[in-house]
Structure formats: structure tokens, C-alpha cells
Amino acid sequence: MKSVSELTDFYYKELYPSINKLEETRKRIVSQLKFYGGMGIVAFAIVALWMGKNFGLLHPLSIALVIGFIILASITYRFMTNGYAKDFKAKIITPMIGAIDPHLLYNPDFMVSQHLFERSELFKHSIDRYSGNDYVKGSIGGVSLEFSDIHAEYQTRDSKGRTQWHTLFRGLFLVAEFNKHFKAKTVILPDYAEKSFGSLIGGWLQSINFTREGLIRMDDPEFEKHFVVYGSDQIEARYILTHSMMKRILDFQRRVSHPLFISFVHNHIHVGIATGKDLFEPAVFTSLLDYKQTMEYVNTLQNTIGLVEELKLNEKLWSKE
Amino acid sequence: MQIFLIVLGALALIAILMYNSLIGKKNQVENIFAGVDTVLKKRYDLIPNLVASVERYMEHEKDTLEKVTQYRAQAMKPGISDDQKIALDAKLTAALGSITVAMEGYPDLKANENVMHLQRSLSEIEEQISAARRAYNQAVTDLNNAIEMFPTNLMAGWMNLQRRAVFEITVTERQNVDVNALFNR
């Protein structure tokens, strides 16, 4: 397992030839985008002027024109950047993951299965649309793990019968083997109730949450402030969440600064980090040599894969070895 | 007259809710103590084996070993109260801890696979016991709070509910048992 600075070195030194080539492609795409963008705007302006004269700006045809232009522009953008994104994943992300640990496999188009996502019980809502990418699978220090970007959505209908899509979860989802045996389910969620209503009313609201099993109050005040724990077994939940484990989870939460969802089901730990965006997607308008951007890729990988060591999942129980 | 009936009904409802929540808390404590008991028994089952295997080596710790056997016998006696069990458990944990430390001084023991096996099983059970203790303490704290806080204290007094003792959590227990560090020294 490499450190962040080693990885940054790897990025700027080992990957330099590929980065340079890709950077050329990126610059070409940006200038093409600017060219087509400019042409598009001029064409749009001419057509819009003509339409405005003949039909008026609020005419349905004019509105259709605007929408048509937006769709055309986004299709063009996708089409032009798609190859670049693929190249980026193949030539930058793949070797980086290999550098972190040769036991890791990477597939940009695959994702953690919906079955595993639902098994985690982190989200009780039914899922109507499930997608993802950037799948990594392998083992770190003898602990098998897999993770990917996940976007889970559900559908509702309003009074007029229109369907609306709502995001249930968007971000990184990780499943890893846990180092202890357990039978019950334990779910750790961000504590919204206690934060917004205080410990008295919030605590009461948590205890009457009917979609979840029993509320488990932990004996770490700091942990209790950030998370709420539900589970089917009071003793087993504490067997998993030792004082040191709670501290490690808190430390991890401080570093990722996105809502954290963790569950322990079926001898596995499931972690959802709700980043709200797609990771490892190259930003066409930012240079590949940009330090901040690079650090984001490196840190995301390091944080996710490093979770195994951070939570000491590799220190297995002797009877589980 | 109607208002009087409504007030009476509301009071009765509150009383029922308080009664039920107190009973729920009391049962939760008993339920979890059953869990504590199970893991404690697991440890009691290992103790005779451990004592028998280390006795030959540990001449100087005869007293401690005897004490461990004694505490175990007391804890296994039928009909002892929960509070007594808790007190015995604290003594037993301390005595077992000192044996573990003393074992460091006997290289022969560390080479004995049987003893190491027992010792590792014990430290795994120790983690389970620690979790069970914490769960029990939380349940007892909930019950004790309800017994002492107004207005449930009135109801608890009438129901004759008593405060329960909690397990003392030692400082070493707050740290995770690091099995690797214990055996790789």
C-alpha cells in the first residue's frame, strides 16, 4: 500500500509520458469545443433573430429551438469528450490502481451489484434505477474488497401523473470482508435528527423510527453526536463497534467530510460515502497537470482503499484466519 | 363532568405508558444480562483447562491460579444474584489479567501450543464479554435514569423497582485487545 506522496510521485513521474499525450488530446478537444461552441452560438443567434422577427420570441417554435440547441450542444460535448474520458481511465486510473496494489482489478464500466447494495440495508427505499461505473475489486492485506461509483434513484408521481426521479444515493460504495464473526445486522447512519432537534427530541425521534430495528445508544458521546446506530442485537453491535472502532470511524468521517453510511451485514462491512458526484471523471477544462485535480484522484483512491488498513480490517480475529 | 373524564383518561394513559416503558426497560436489562451470562459461561468453561495446563509451569502464581478456580466455582453456583455475579466477574477478570502478564516470564509456556490456543480463545471471548458488559451498562443506565427521574420515579417507587449495579469498565478494556501485539513480542 503506497502513501499519498508516493502516489503523487508516481503520477507525475511514471505516468508523465501518458499524461503528456493525453494533455495534448485534451487541449485539442478544448480548442475544438471552443470552435464549435462559437459557431453554434453564431448560428443560434442568427436563427433566433430570424425566428424572433417572424414568430416572436415566446412562440412555441422558438422555445423548441432553444431546447433543441441545448440538446445538440450536450450531445456534441459528450461525443467529443467520451474518447478522452475512456483514455484517461485506461492510461491514468488503471496504472494508478495497479500501483496501489497489484492485486486490484479495475473495470471502468462495471459496478458493485445491486444485490450487495440492497443487502447493506443502508437505504430502505426501493430502487427504480441503478447505475454505476469505475469498479475496483481485489484484496488488500488478505481482506477482499470491492467498490465503485453508484447512483441509485427512485421514482415518484406527482398529482398530474408526471414522473420524477429522486436520488437515493450517489457516491462511492464499498463492500469488504469484516474481521469478526457476527450474525445480527448493525447499521450506522448520519445523525440528522439529533443535530437538528437536539439530543432530547432528536433521540426520541430516532427511537420511534419504524423502518429500522432497535436504536442502539453507544457509549461514545462524540460518536453519538455524528451517527445514529440501529441494530437487531445490542451486544453484537458493541462487539463490532468497540471504542477504538468508533474512534477510527470518527477519524475517517472527519477526513472525507461527506455523509457516511456504514452497515455490518452478513460478515461484511458496507460503506457508502455520499459524495454526490461521479468520481474519476476527467474535467476537460482543467489541465491534467493541475495539482489540485491530481490530488483529488489520488486522495479518493487512497482514502477508499486505505479504509481497510484504517479500520484495521486486516487484523483478523485469530479464529478467522 | 366531561372535562373531568377527559383529564382522568389522559392521566390513565400517561400512567399506562410510564408503566409499560419501565417494564420494557427492566426486561431489556434482564434480556441483556442473559447475553452477558452466556459469554461469561463460555469463559468459565475454558478456565479449568487453562489452569490445568499452566499449573505445572507457574509455580509462583499458585495463589492466583487457586483464586481463579475459586471465583469460577463461586460464579457457577446456582442462585447467586446478578450483582454478585458482576462483582465476581470483576475479580476474575483482574486475576486472569495478572496470569496473562505473568505468562510472559515463562518461555516454556509460550512454546506450548495448547496453552497458546487457550489464551487466544480467552482473549477473543474477552472482547465479547466487553461488548456484553457495555450493552448491559447502557440498559442499566436507561433503567436507573427512569427509576430516578421525575415523573417515572413515582411509578417506579410504586412498582418497587430497584436500581441495578453496572459493570466497571477498566482503562485497559477501553483499548482494543491487540492480539497480534500480545503474541508477537
Tally of DSSP helical segments of chain B: 8
Low-confidence stretches of chain A: none
Rg of chain B, rounded, reads 22 Å
If strands are numbered along the chain, what order do they take across the biggest sheet of chain A?
1-2-3-4-9-8-5-7-6
Shape verdict of chain B: rod-shaped
- How many strands, what sense, and barrel or not for the largest sheet of chain B? none
Given helix and strand content, the structural type of chain B is mainly alpha
Give the amount of beta strand of chain B, in percent: under 5%
As a percent range, the share of helical residues of chain A equals 40-55%
Series of H and E elements of chain A? HHHEHEEEEHEHEHHEEH
Biggest pleated sheet of chain A? 9 strands, antiparallel
Written as H for each helix and E for each strand, in order along the chain, the element string of chain B is: HHHHHHHH
Oligomer: heterodimer
Q: Please, how many domains of chain B?
A: 1
CATH architecture heading of chain B: Up-down Bundle
Radius of gyration of chain A: 24 Å
CATH topology of chain B: de novo design (two linked rop proteins)
User: What is the C-level CATH assignment of chain B?
Assistant: Mainly Alpha
First-last Cα distance of chain B: 80 Å
Shape of chain A: globular
